[in-house]
Design goal:
The complex is a heterodimer of chains A (about 325) and B (about 350). Helix content of chain A is about 30%, strand content about 25%. By secondary structure, chain A is α+β, with helices and mostly antiparallel strands. Chain B has 2 domains: about 1-40; about 60-335, Rossmann fold, CATH 3.40.50. Chain B has 10 helices and 13 strands. The chains are: A alpha+beta (about 325), B alpha/beta (about 350).
């Protein structure tokens, strides 16, 4: 049976459109209301206080990282180990937790000790499981203290006057004392070696092969960083290696990222170019007419973006056009462009 | 007749007036029912903080009467000895008696956020805390309390930072957070602090509040100084506010008007804040700022960190909210040097 096709009058149309418009207004109101989200709605006022999970309680599954904190002669434990996950890391390092969380953080355990041999120094040990070697390198390099010497503990290890920092596979370790002395450094190194003895041997996974492609000449020692998120202020521009260079014609930062597909590399490059343009940079063309290379300028700062297959690379914040070109040539040579 | 009408409708496909009105009636009834149900379920007040509890609207104005209205007072003191710098700065501001009178009950809000030794500069230095507490007692304070709400193990934070010991030595008492101290607070015009648990109980009976803070880099807020220190009054899972760190600090500037702010930039944490960890993160910046204006104090602190107001948006936001002046020079600060 054929369905009756009603003719719609002008009044009906007006009423119908009015109803649709009302629904539209309601939907818009809901969207606006949602945009002004009040976190208090989802947070219980007197919710259970979240503390780090104390290790050693009966019936409790010990945290993996807690088991990696050794007891070493001379280091008298002041507390049981405490462990934190993504949900409560900020309870321990409020204000810095996001640095770890944005880099794939899994778990952290820490424990404090008294070191009598160094004048009753207070020593705290932190072992972070970052899930992968590149993630561990990201938090290691992101907090690297400039000018601090490398130490031969692992491939990525350095010391400051009161602390040691290193990675082994997916683990990032900090051993921090409240003072500086030669005797203390020896004790901290001994503790670090005991920690490493509890960890699996270093696998093949380093920070990532893209890091090895950064040109070596002119590279400031220990300036290579893996930036996990929102690199150069661009939201979603993630997992980018950077290295700082001192060049004949000035200074500049090289960046390099490997993407899953050439399309993704091109899309990220395009997004970065649009971000620069939106922030006042002006295109000054390709340096030698090479397709796929863009040069941009804002005041005395120069940027170059280039894409090669799955690799996205470029020069950031060069102090002169000549410095930008110089570093670009080094990058092109390193990338065999 | 009806059959004829129906037949006409079937043939023409047109709807008659009665059917149309019926349908409009049904649709309107349905719409009203849905709207009515929505209204019935609407909770315009949001979730109640606690049964029988009324949300506060702020923690109070603790400005000393002697200071009065107008631009705040400020002293910027160079040196290395915190106690000497504080003493010289206070002298320039008219002495502690200008701010603390006999019988006052003083709360000192410190930064005890981490169980970190004082040498690492992540918390209020015990030397400056001791100097402030001692000066309060000497000015006639009946009671001096020291408080903060470090989320993880407050006892350890107060002990390891050296704050507990410094307080004890001067006769000040420590107020550690407990559930009974928290009350819901909704800032008028606040977008974030709405029915949020705030440690108001720590200020019960207080007549003066002094905020004593270190100067630190902050991974999220860029700088942690006086205004960021007020974050420690918040309870609950306050880390949710990190998504709008500038917004929350600007709102915190409305929480209370402190009597005095002491911003200790004798040694500043230049990198890897707010926890730091390495002595390499610290720099001797040799400056102490004492001011009645928390915004102005932080504006000086930003310079110690080698940053500008543009780098730390919450300072300008707090100024716009009326919490103080970002151009600290308008306060005509007393510039002093203990080494001179």
């Amino acid at each position: 049976m054929a369905r009756r096709q009603a003719k719609v009058g002008a009044t009906e149309k007006v009423v119908g459109y009015s109803i649709l418009a009302t629904l539209g207004v309601i939907a818009l109101g809901l969207l606006i209301r949602q945009a002004h989200f009040n976190p208090a709605v989802t947070v219980a006022l007197h919710g259970a206080k979240v503390q780090g999970r104390l290790q050693g309680a009966p019936g409790q599954t010990p945290a993996v990282t807690a088991a990696l904190i050794p007891e070493v002669s001379g280091f008298t434990p002041l507390t049981p180990a405490q462990s934190f996950g993504p949900d409560n890391l900020s309870d321990k390092i409020d204000g810095k937790a996001e640095l770890y969380l944005s880099s794939g953080f899994k778990e952290m355990s820490c424990r404090s000790f008294n070191l009598a041999a160094a004048g009753s120094a207070y020593v705290e040990v932190f072992v972070y499981d970052m899930g992968s070697a590149p993630n561990a390198f990201a938090v290691f390099s992101g907090q690297r203290r400039p000018g601090s010497p490398n130490i031969p503990l692992t491939a990525n290890a350095y010391a400051t006057s009161n602390a040691l920092y290193f990675t082994r596979g997916p683990y990032y370790v900090e051993i921090v004392a409240d003072r500086a002395s030669g005797a203390l450094q020896k004790s901290l190194t001994m503790y670090a070696e005991a920690t490493l003895a509890k960890m699996p041997a270093e696998g093949k996974g380093g920070p990532g092969k893209a890091a090895d492609l950064l040109p070596k000449e002119g590279l400031t020692s220990d300036s290579v960083r893996l930036n996990a998120s929102d690199v150069f202020g661009l939201e979603g521009f993630n997992n980018v290696f950077t290295g700082e260079y001192t060049l004949k014609n000035g200074t500049a930062t090289a960046f390099l990222a490997e993407r899953a597909t050439p399309g993704q590399a091109r899309a990220d490059a395009q997004r970065y170019l649009e971000f620069l343009t939106a922030n006042g940079y002006q295109k000054i063309g390709s340096p030698d007419g090479t397709e796929g290379i863009e040069v941009l300028k804002l005041d005395d700062s120069y940027e170059i973006v280039l894409v090669q297959g799955r690799l996205l690379a470029g020069v950031h914040d060069a102090s002169s056009l000549a410095a930008a070109r110089e570093l670009m040539e080094k990058l092109r040579t390193a990338l065999k462009l | 007749m009806k059959e004829k009408s129906d037949l006409k409708e079937m043939c023409t496909g047109a709807m008659n007036r009665r059917d149309f009105l019926k349908r409009v009636g049904y649709a309107s009834a349905l719409g009203l029912a849905a709207g009515g149900l929505g209204l019935a379920l609407l909770d315009s007040q949001g979730p109640a903080a606690a049964v029988g509890q009324k949300a506060l609207t702020g923690l109070g104005d603790f400005t000393a009467k002697a200071v009065g209205a107008g631009p705040g007072k400020m002293a910027i003191v160079k040196g290395t000895d915190r106690a000497a710098m504080f003493a010289q700065g206070m002298k320039a501001l008219g002495g502690m008696e200008t701010f603390i009178q006999k019988g006052d009950r003083v709360v000192i809000k410190v930064n005890a956020a981490f169980a970190s030794p004082p040498t690492l500069g992540a918390t209020t230095n015990p030397e400056i805390l001791a100097a402030v507490a001692k000066a309060c007692f000497q000015a006639g304070a009946a009671q001096v309390s020291v408080t903060d709400n470090p989320i993880n193990n407050p006892d350890s934070c107060f002990a390891i930072s050296g704050i507990a010991n410094a307080a004890r030595k001067t006769g000040a008492r420590i107020i550690t957070p407990s559930a009974s101290l928290f009350s819901p607070l909704s800032l008028p015009k606040g977008k974030l602090i709405e029915n949020w648990p705030v440690m108001a109980g720590a200020l019960t009976g207080a007549t003066r509040v002094i905020v004593v803070s270190p100067v630190k880099d902050h991974q999220r807020a860029i700088a942690s100084m006086t205004l960021k220190n007020l974050y420690g009054f918040l309870g609950g899972r306050r880390n949710v506010f990190h998504q709008d760190i500038n917004g929350i600090i600007a709102e915190l500037s409305q929480l209370l008007k402190p009597t005095l702010c002491v911003l200790d930039g004798t040694v500043s944490m230049m990198t890897n804040g707010p926890t730091g960890g390495s002595l390499a993160d610290l720099k001797e910046t040799g400056t102490m700022i004492i001011s009645t204006d928390p915004v102005a104090a932080d504006a000086v602190g930003v310079e110690l960190l080698g940053r500008t107001l543009a780098d730390v948006p919450y300072i300008t936001m707090a100024e716009k909210a009326g919490a103080g002046r970002a151009d600290y020079r308008l306060l005509k600060p007393a510039l002093l040097n203990t080494m001179a």
